[in-house]
Structure formats: structure tokens, C-alpha cells
UniProtKB/TrEMBL annotation:
Protein name per the record: O-fucosyltransferase family protein
Compositional bias annotation for Low complexity: 7-20
Keywords of the record: Carbohydrate metabolism, Fucose metabolism, Glycoprotein, Glycosyltransferase, Membrane, Transferase, Transmembrane, Transmembrane helix
UniProt-annotated stretches for the region Disordered: 1-60
InterPro entries: FucosylTrfase_pln, GDP-Fuc_O-FucTrfase, GT106_glycosyltransferase
Pfam families documented for this protein: O-FucT
Any GO molecular function: glycosyltransferase activity
Species name: Lolium multiflorum (Italian ryegrass)
Gene Ontology process terms (BP): fucose metabolic process
Length: 565
């Protein structure tokens, strides 16, 4: 019994000496870890007898060693602790390295310029915050790009001396004013390609325009030659030493023909340059769309932009009159208001050439069929095949919009009847009757003849191209430009506004196929049509997009002629 009592006392003394340390350790662990529950009192008053505390969270859900070490669940003095810390440091190092590698990509995305991209036939544009304006593109679109085709003061000229040039080239710029403008830009480009001297182009009389305008009647010759003097050598006339002037454009020996459309720069070097070197002076005929876009060097395309946007300026008198017309448009209501310019392509010739069907009486349709048969006999044949072809073209959006159709689209986009609209067009086919629906929706339609006095406009009637130049400049200065069909006029205007306005100015290209859908479904409510118009035209307002291969440089000069702002 004495031995038993001695053993009991020794065990009690051992428990007494070890219990405080254990309790302190447990208390410290409990206080330092959020995963351990607070101590709870025991007793026999529980529902099921003795009250049991739930196990700690880290015991119910085992955690990896490094995480346990980080959360102070792992004893630093344990053998596995150094390994856990090394694993944790390795994981943190990998995360830091991944963040460091991805940082430039993230920054580049945050600082990327505003640029729309083609997705099939649709244009996908970055989203912007805030509600769009009827009169301007999003501000962010205008902050990303700037013009950069102008000549810089520090740019080094590679122009050779007059004795080292290959020879002289001479062209006739054919067609209307805008087609002639493109031909002049291309003439400067091929002179650069072949290292030749350009003789000031002649504006050829067109069969439709029947105009005898000369280059100096429209454009500022001095500015044209001086601005390009470090790029291409340009002379006003054929050199005096050349005595066979009558042979140019008439003699086979002096004319380069059969140049394919959209020819490459290399084609001119291989096929035209040898003849210029041999004959010293050669003319090129015809010269409509005889230079490509994606098959010429970048610097040549930039030179074309330099000619179009900087070197080719209209005469001061034309510029001043256009400024007056634009000012009068903005002040028609007594207050300064924005105005829209509408390029309405619905002349008789355009309607006939489109071979589309339009609303009209039987007599009007018979007269149009007779006109088409006379003007385009090979395409017309007997006319029996034209009806299904006309329906297909209208569904595909390849027909000119009628005045009433463009009125519907503009009203659906949110423009009210108070909108001031400048109309640039020839004689509208169908006259006032055809214009009535548009005028009912937008009563404030005016032309240059309405804005200018008879005395002011009479001076410009000497040359048809002068009147076209006024329309060009007033459309260029407008707050919103709207086209109704393709053509060089609309292409040049949209490209000019993109370049000089840095994409801020809206240039609307209506979806012509929408009208076919709208009129083809008599049950489509107006609200649905409005929704379709708004969604479709969000990206059809002249926003920044890359110039892709085989695309027209004149409508979209961004890739070749604009730089990051």
C-alpha cells in the first residue's frame, strides 16, 4: 500500500509540473491561429451528455505544408519546416516571375490605340464608356492616331539632279474631278518609282462632264510644285527642246498603252522605264486606276497621301467660297448649329448604270428600259434577265439608295427634322417628286445654289469642276457626312475626314441591304427597324481601321499614312 501511494503521488506531481506548459502552448497556438476554435467549458449539462468541442478546421481540411507554415500551423522547429518554407518561396517566386513576364502585355493592351478589326464582313470595334453622339465619333477614337504623311523639316531628300533623271512622263487625267485627283496622285507616285520628271498633268475633257478645265483653273500649281520639290521633279510644260509635241498621245512611238489596272511598282520598272530611257519623253494612256495599293512600297503609298492631303490644294477663290457656304450652313437658324452633308447619287446616269429596279410608274420604267438599251446595249440585251438580277443586287445592298430610303435610315439613327442638310448631287432622277419623301422628313435641305447668290455662283459656272470642288469642300467641312452610293467622291471625302479629322468626324456609310429587308417585310415594326439601324451603324461611321490588302487607299489611309498619336 505504501508503494502504491508513493506511485500515485509521483504521478500527480508529474502531471502538476507538466500541465501549465501544455496549457500555455495550447493557449498560444489557439491565439495565433485563426483556424483553431476558442476553448469551451466542459460539463455534463449537454444534451447528449458530455459536451465535445469540434476538431480544428485544419484537421478537418488538411492544408499543404507551405500554407500551414505561413499560417503558423507548422512548428518552425519541426524537421519538415525548412522544406515547407523553401516550397513556399519557390511558389511565390514563380508567381512574381509570371507577373513580371505578363506586365508588358497587360500594359500594351491598356495603352493600345483604338482600332477596329475586320471579322469577316463585319467590323469589330473596342467598346467605349458613355453614350455616343449623333455628331461625333467617340473621343478615344480621335486620340489614337494622327496624320503623318506631310513632309517633315528633318526629312532627307533622295531626289537626284535633273541630269540623272530617267526622262519625262506626261499623262491625261481622265474623268470627273475626283477621278482626275486620283490620277494626279498616281502620276506623282509612278514618277517617283521610275525616277522620272513629271510634266504637269492635263485634265482631259470627259464625255459626261464636257468640261475644258485646266489644272491651273482648279488647283494651286505653285503650291503643288513647291510642296513636292524634294520628292519629285515637276515641270509646268513640255521642254522646249522637244519639237514633236503633236505626237504625244497620238503616236504609238510616244505612248505607253495596255498598262493593266492596279499594276505593281515592279511592272513600271520592268516595262515602262526602259521606254522612257530610250525616248526621253513618253505619255501614258489610259491612266485610270493604273497603280495598285498593296503591291507598291509603303513610302510610295505615303507619297500618294502627301499629294492628296497636302500638295493638291484648290485655288484660294474656291477655298474662300467654300468657307462662306459652310459658315452659312451653320448659321441658317440664327445660332451656330452643326450640319450634315449628304452626297445623293441618284442621277439618271447612275440609276441607269446600276441596272436596279426602283419605284415608278409603268411609263417611267419603260423610258428607263429604253435609255439603258441605248446606252448599254450589250448589258441590256432584251431586258428579260434584268428583273431577277435587280432583286439580287438590292438584297446585297448594291443599289443606290433613293432619297426617301436614306431619309428613313437617318430618322432611325436619331436625326430630327430640324437637322440642317447640305445636299451635294447632280440632277436627281425624278426631280421634286422623287425628293418629296426626303424633304418631308427633313425640310431643311439646301444646295450651294440656295446658299450663294447668283452673282457668286455665276463665277464658278465657267468650269463644271469648280462647282464639284465647292461640293467637295463643303462636304469635307461638315460635321457629319453621309454617302448613299459608292464612287470616288465619297471615297475621297471619307478618307480625307479620317486623315485630317483624326477619325473624330463622322462619315456614315449606310447599310443599303437594310432597306431591302425593311421594305421586304411589311410586318416589321418601326421599333425593330430602328434597333437594326442603330446596331448595324455603330461601326459604319469612319472609325479607325487598318488598311487591309486590296483595299482602297483613298477611303482608308490609316496603315500607310497615319501614326500613333
Amino acid at each position: 500500500m505504501a508503494e502504491l501511494r508513493h506511485a500515485t503521488v509521483a504521478a500527480a506531481a508529474a502531471r502538476a509540473s507538466s500541465s501549465p506548459a501544455k496549457r500555455d502552448a495550447e493557449a498560444a497556438t489557439s491565439a495565433s491561429s485563426p483556424f483553431l476554435p476558442s476553448p469551451r467549458g466542459g460539463g455534463d449539462g449537454g444534451k447528449d451528455g458530455a459536451l465535445r468541442s469540434s476538431p480544428p478546421l485544419h484537421q478537418r481540411f488538411p492544408l499543404p505544408g507551405p500554407v500551414r507554415a505561413l499560417l503558423a500551423l507548422e512548428d518552425p522547429s519541426s524537421p519538415s519546416a525548412p522544406t515547407s518554407y523553401r516550397i513556399l518561396l519557390a511558389v511565390l517566386a514563380c508567381l512574381a516571375l509570371a507577373a513580371l513576364v505578363s506586365a508588358p502585355s497587360v500594359c500594351s493592351r491598356l495603352n493600345a490605340p483604338y482600332l477596329c478589326r475586320k471579322d469577316g464582313i463585319r467590323l469589330q470595334c473596342p467598346g467605349v464608356s458613355g453614350r455616343g453622339s449623333l455628331w461625333e465619333n467617340p473621343r478615344v477614337a480621335a486620340m489614337s492616331w494622327k496624320p503623318c504623311a506631310e513632309r517633315r523639316s528633318d526629312e532627307i531628300s533622295d531626289l537626284v539632279s535633273e541630269d540623272e533623271t530617267s526622262g519625262y512622263i506626261f499623262i491625261h487625267a481622265e474623268g470627273g474631278l475626283n477621278q482626275q485627283r486620283i490620277a494626279i496622285c498616281n502620276a506623282v507616285a509612278i514618277a517617283k518609282i521610275m525616277n522620272a520628271t513629271l510634266i504637269l498633268p492635263v485634265l482631259k475633257q470627259d464625255q459626261i462632264w464636257k468640261d475644258q478645265t485646266k489644272f491651273e483653273d482648279i488647283f494651286d500649281v505653285d503650291h503643288f510644285i513647291n510642296y513636292l520639290k524634294y520628292d519629285v521633279r515637276i515641270v509646268r510644260d513640255i521642254p522646249d527642246w522637244f519639237t514633236e509635241k503633236d505626237e504625244l498621245f497620238t503616236s504609238i512611238k510616244r505612248t505607253v498603252k495596255n498598262i493593266p489596272k492596279y499594276a505593281s511598282a515592279q511592272f513600271y520598272v520592268d516595262n515602262v522605264l526602259p521606254r522612257i530611257k530610250e525616248k526621253k519623253i513618253m505619255s501614258i494612256k489610259p491612266f485610270v486606276d493604273r497603280l495598285g495599293y498593296d503591291n507598291v512600297p509603303m513610302k510610295i503609298n505615303r507619297l500618294r497621301c502627301r499629294v492628296n492631303y497636302h500638295a493638291l490644294k484648290f485655288l484660294p477663290g474656291i477655298e474662300e467660297m467654300a468657307d462662306k457656304l459652310a459658315t452659312r450652313m451653320r448659321n441658317r437658324t440664327g445660332n451656330v448649329n452643326p450640319y450634315m452633308a449628304l452626297h445623293l447619287r441618284f442621277e439618271k446616269g447612275m440609276v441607269g448604270l446600276s441596272f436596279c429596279d426602283f419605284v415608278g410608274t409603268r411609263k417611267e420604267k419603260a423610258m428607263m428600259a429604253e435609255y439603258r438599251q441605248k446606252q448599254w446595249p450589250r448589258r441590256f440585251k432584251n431586258g428579260s434577265h434584268l428583273w431577277p438580277l435587280a432583286l439580287e443586287k438590292r438584297k446585297e445592298g448594291r443599289c443606290p439608295l433613293e432619297p426617301g430610303e436614306i431619309g428613313f435610315i437617318l430618322r432611325a439613327m436619331g436625326y430630327t427634322k430640324e437637322t440642317q442638310i447640305y445636299v451635294a448631287s447632280g440632277q436627281v432622277y425624278g426631280g421634286n417628286k422623287r425628293m418629296a419623301p426626303l424633304r418631308n422628313m427633313f425640310p431643311n435641305l439646301v444646295t450651294k445654289e440656295d446658299l450663294a447668290s447668283k452673282e457668286e455662283i455665276e463665277h464658278f459656272k465657267k468650269h463644271v469642276t469648280s462647282l464639284a470642288a465647292l461640293d467637295f469642300l463643303v462636304c469635307l467641312k461638315s460635321d457629319v457626312f453621309v454617302m448613299t452610293h459608292g464612287g470616288n467622291f465619297a471615297k475621297l471625302i471619307i478618307g480625307f475626314r479620317r486623315y485630317m479629322g483624326r477619325h473624330r468626324l463622322k462619315s456614315i456609310k449606310p447599310d443599303k441591304g437594310l432597306m431591302s429587308k425593311f421594305f421586304g417585310d411589311p410586318y416589321m415594326p418601326w421599333a425593330t427597324f430602328v434597333e437594326d439601324v442603330m446596331i448595324t451603324h455603330q461601326t459604319r461611321t469612319g472609325l479607325p481601321e487598318a488598311t487591309f490588302p486590296h483595299y482602297d487607299l483613298w477611303e482608308n489611309p490609316l496603315t500607310h499614312c497615319m501614326c500613333r498619336a
